[in-house]
């Protein structure tokens, strides 16, 4: 027992040390970039400043992410009332690509000058700056999963855009739009809340909330069913590495009175861990068993549970499931 405790403590301290070192490296980049001017005359000027201050590709990629996240705001008004799409004519493929690039350039300059954009502007500006500092970067368009009603949705959409960037021998996932904050429906406004989890994001978490139009990442197929039918996860889920081990589906089909087993990574019996019943009252998880670095417990699904069940750790949402009574 003593040896097990020593091993556990050693592993825990190793993880903390590695995470601390990793954070400290990015902290240095973030702190320097936050001292930059809030605006630059051109994207060339900003790219030149980044190239001057940073030599490693990873630091350049992070510097762009941080500057955009702290200086651009999501244009929610434009999201609600998008401009009409612009049509154009062309005589060959080369002319088509040239005109498409001109349209992208307009979006980039508008985002850079006004410091407001929707996801397309964020991702195009990121690509523009990444290319200018010597990084390979692409814009990816696809679907996003952000609401309870997205659990079990039947069809895919294409309402979001993000980036993939190449550094240190790998293509990395970056969503600078979500890195700058989120929309708070209760307050009716955008909330600026820097979320570094969307820089070099973990693919398992990333594709729980993103689905590319191509259906693939690095030539590997991504499960459409896992995206559409999986649980809804939140930023705090990713930050705490609270991976959902069970159930795998976000749709819980049960009869009244059935017990459902849940298991979450990195949660213990002593944590303030609870769910809300259909009256929005907190119900503490009482019967948990700690298993392999996580918590396993059962919930009786009855008429006190609403159409969705959301679990909270302290005051933060961790995961939501859709409840379907047979």
From TrEMBL:
Spell out the GO cellular component terms annotated for this protein, sorted alphabetically and separated by semicolons: cytoplasm
Show where the Transglutaminase-like domain sits: 111-178
What would be one Pfam family of this protein?
Transglut_core
| InterPro entries xref list | CAP/Cytokinesis_protein, Papain-like_cys_pep_sf, Transglutaminase-like
Name used for this protein in its record: Transglutaminase
The stretch of residues making up the signal peptide is none
